[in-house]
Amino acid sequence: MKWFLCLIAAGVYLCFQNLVDAEPRLSRSAIEKAVMEAKATVDSAYEYSRRESIERVRRNMANPSDILRLLKQPVGLTRDAVRAADYMDNTVKLIKRSLEKRQKRSINATDLISEEDLQVIADLTGCSPRHRVPSCKMTPNLDRFRTASSVCNNRKNTRWGSANTPFTRWLPAEYQDKISLPKGWDPKQKVNKRFLPLVREVSNRILRTATSDVESDPLYTHLVTIFGQWTDHDLTFTPHSPVIRSFSNGIDCDKSCERTEPCFPIELPKEDPRFGRNSEECIPFFRSAAACGSGNTGHIFGASDVRQQMNSLTAFIDAGQVYGSDDTKARFLRNLTTDEGLLRVNTEYTDNGRELLPFTSMGANMCATRSRITNDFNVEEVQCFLAGDERSNENIGLTSLHTLLMREHNRLARALAKLNPHWNGERLYQEARKIMGGYFQVITFRDYLLHIVGPDVITNQLSTYPGYDETVDPSISNVFATAAYRFAHLMVQPFMFRLNEQYKEHHEFPSPLLHKAFFTPWRIIFEGGLDPILRGLVGRQAKLNTQDQMMTDELRERLFKFSTELALDLAALNLQRGRDHGLPGYNKWRKFCGLSQPKNRRQLAKVLKNGKLARSLLDLYGRPDNIDVWVGGVAEPFVRGGRVGPLFACLIATQFQRIREGDRLWWENKGVFTEAQRESLEQTSLARIICDNTGITEVPERPFEYRPRGSGYTKCKNIPAFDLSPWKENTE
Ligand code: HEM
Ligand SMILES: *[C@@H]1O[C@H](CO)[C@@H](O)[C@H](O)[C@H]1NC(C)=O
Ligand SMILES: *[C@@H]1O[C@H](CO)[C@@H](O)[C@H](O)[C@H]1NC(C)=O
């Protein structure tokens, strides 16, 4: 038997070749020893990081990179999956090292780990169960309700679109070493005969936008922006490994510029507007966790042989950001003291009598930002809010949507209980949850996507529902999460607007700068609640992404900054993340979408309709092929009636097409809802949801479309209520 086997372990790879029928030279006990040692290393790095994080947050020393790390921290089942992957990676690495020592030379092309050995390693580290196909026979009501993790949505490929599976790839990954290391890991290695520019340099030269220069969108409201983030948080979450320091040499990623897994720090250019000249600092960056057994151990699970990243969320539009994406979390969010099908609410505070999200019970409180922002050390701090997605506190606009939709669930559950007094809490919860999923499928397709990808793409790809297709894999693609759907970072305003009942600037609680609205649940509790913020979202315009005003410096220079520490740069993070994930360059994606591939400055200038921008990009990248896909995509001029260029319109539409066609429980699929229920759902409106759950009495009837105050605002009593009567069950 001949075989050739390559293994990947966090950045190093080794190939073993078996030309004769060699006996496996690794004993079972040697493998077990390596696994135990790897587990100890990983566990101690996790434990160190956990203690260090809690300590930093407790002492109010958490810096912006801690905040990002805590934000991207895997929890619950995701944490188990990431931990298993780390165990496996480190085991393989240890075995390599010990073999090297024995051989006194770097081993390469030796036959020391067999496929069976790898299987043993996978079993011992917990990687195997990640790949087992769950059975759907035991799950009740599969035709009626979604499972929390969406496993069994597809009955044949039961993991398709489910939580904690790898992102899919529409084009093969491109790593520096072809397997796992990011492009640019070794800055001296050329890509297509050119050096890649530093991501911070690209950010400085292409994306920089001072707060005073921001232009507003003539057509769309800031709700379009934040609803985009809301939708993203239903679909994608890419976890880090929860470590601060490198496994191999114990270096803290945020204290060093050394590239050592999982640290991939962002180097600063020689001249930087914020950091000055020749700064020795780096912006810390942690690589996304590798999916279990990806890289060259992937084939034993029938997966591909490069490093893959994991999506903790379900690929479906199912309001997962309200309910959670695994059973444990989902149960934890429910109010099980009574049998009413409700979600838990805050028992300490209300918003003028209306419900607020419950607090987290985490030991460390990264939302204790009030004293730092107000410079008053006597103020009361509160915990972060808890919701279905871990990022609900990221900004107060997003927090407001989370709160609004939690209230809507509870409103629906109570109304359903009146209609159907015989339903128990479980039934009420599931029916309300199902309606909520329907709401967002309708609103996303009917109202939102049109404004983003424009009418032409809608006509071509997203018009009439073609029916469920069980051969469509709905999984989110890596390029969607890591590049295309980050388009709206360029539509974020430098302020979180707060407006009074007349939709004018709120006198008592004026609009904070964005960087003073990150992780500030206390603003909702102590500063007038939801209503001023929601009015700000529907009553003020989005930022317009223009080719010379791309990303507000609130995100580029002050991300997660609460006082004087080193703030992050979201543009640099997006670019570095694309390299971390091995995304191919701009032109490969243009080709994937059937678009032209500009080869020189003249052609690029034509695609961008902008000679100056083409020149700046080529000064950095040398050739269009090398342009990082995120910046290439956001630099394109908009398609007609949309807010992205042709490349991102294609990638976004392709993803949503798959999300719709590959969802057995899509609201329009036969048998999911009754015809009468579908008619109700067609009439749903975000305007009415706002009216039903806040003190707001007057709203723009189409809250994505900007109307100056006075025209197009409608009294709530004139907006039709959601008709629940088709949910009344005949009990005779
Ligand atoms: C105030 C506004 C926002 C802030 C502060 C923010 C911040 C962030 C941060 C820090 C990340 C992680 C970056 C990394 O390390 O890779 C991220 C990821 C992302 N953001 Fe935003 N964002 C905002 C708004 C939006 C909006 C409006 C959209 C969309 C339409 C969006 C879509 C995304 C997506 C798709 C990801 C990748 C998520 C994942 O898979 O983990 N964001 N954002
Ligand atoms: C393995 O050996 C080949 C041939 O000597 C060499 O080209 C390759 O770079 C080596 N790979 C590693 C990982 O050392
Ligand atoms: C659970 O529901 C009951 C009844 O509506 C309510 O009184 C109680 O405060 C709720 N508890 C939580 C934690 O939401």
pLDDT < 50 runs, ≥5 residues: 1-24
Please state roughly what percent of the residues sit in beta strands, choosing from under 5%, 5-15%, 15-25%, 25-35%, 35-45% or over 45%: 5-15%
Helix content: 25-40%
Name the hetero compounds present: protoporphyrin IX containing FE, 2-acetamido-2-deoxy-beta-D-glucopyranose
Strand tally: 14
Largest sheet, order of strands side by side? 1-2
CATH topology of the largest domain: Myeloperoxidase, subunit C
C-alpha Rg, in Å? 26 Å
- Please, how many domains? 2
**Could you name the CATH homologous superfamily of the largest domain?**
Haem peroxidase domain superfamily, animal type
What average pLDDT do the residues reach? Answer: 90
Give the overall shape, derived from the CA principal axes.
globular
Largest sheet: 2 strands, antiparallel
Top CATH class of the largest domain: Mainly Alpha
| Gap from first CA to last CA | 70 Å
Structural class: mainly alpha
User: What is the second-level CATH architecture of the largest domain?
Assistant: Orthogonal Bundle
Please tally the helical runs, counting DSSP H or I stretches of 4 or more residues.
23
